[in-house]
Amino acid sequence: MRKLAFLSVLPGLLLAGAAHAEGEVLLDYRDTAFTSGQAFYAQPDRRRIAALLKTASPEAARDMGETFAILGDADGTFANGSGRVYLIQSRAPAAIEPFPDGPAPVLLVTGQGEAAQLFRLPPDVQYQRLVAAADGNGDGRDEVLLEASFTNMGQTTTALDVIRLEADGTAKPAQTLRDVTLDACDNPSGERTRSAATVRIGPEGFEAKPHALPCP
Hints:
Shape: globular
């Protein structure tokens, strides 16, 4: 079974849009302020994003509906230049939902004076939030890091999908970092364990280093 726990982020906690040195900590899942922050978009922001979404793709705007969820944003440099990327779904992830039954989530990129561009994500996953945009392979373009959480037999894990945005409008998974969080404290029969990772940029892309944590 899949657990879609909505982990929002405070806008100031997104480590995105700036150059990051190799080995520097990009994301720290031990930080409860990072993992439990809550994003907020005022109505003027929502109206602006809704208008951009409709301009980029009237079909996607219809799919998302008027009460769409914005699950984080980040500044970055992408295939068609610099801009801000937003993760949008038709609704926020449910606490427990084995299989997504809504339209595929999308990434909306807005630029300085440029038309917004839409990137469709795979239809068989719903993400919790967009946590960063950063250049993992040194090519001058940022990838987008998205969280997905799962639960099974008392164990909950969070993975990070690294998404590359291509000039032709496609969004391609480039890497997956598994178990950036792991909570097996409710495991009914196996080992009770918990861990949280720090995420860095290494020689071959993004790397996650787990750190053991005590069960409550």
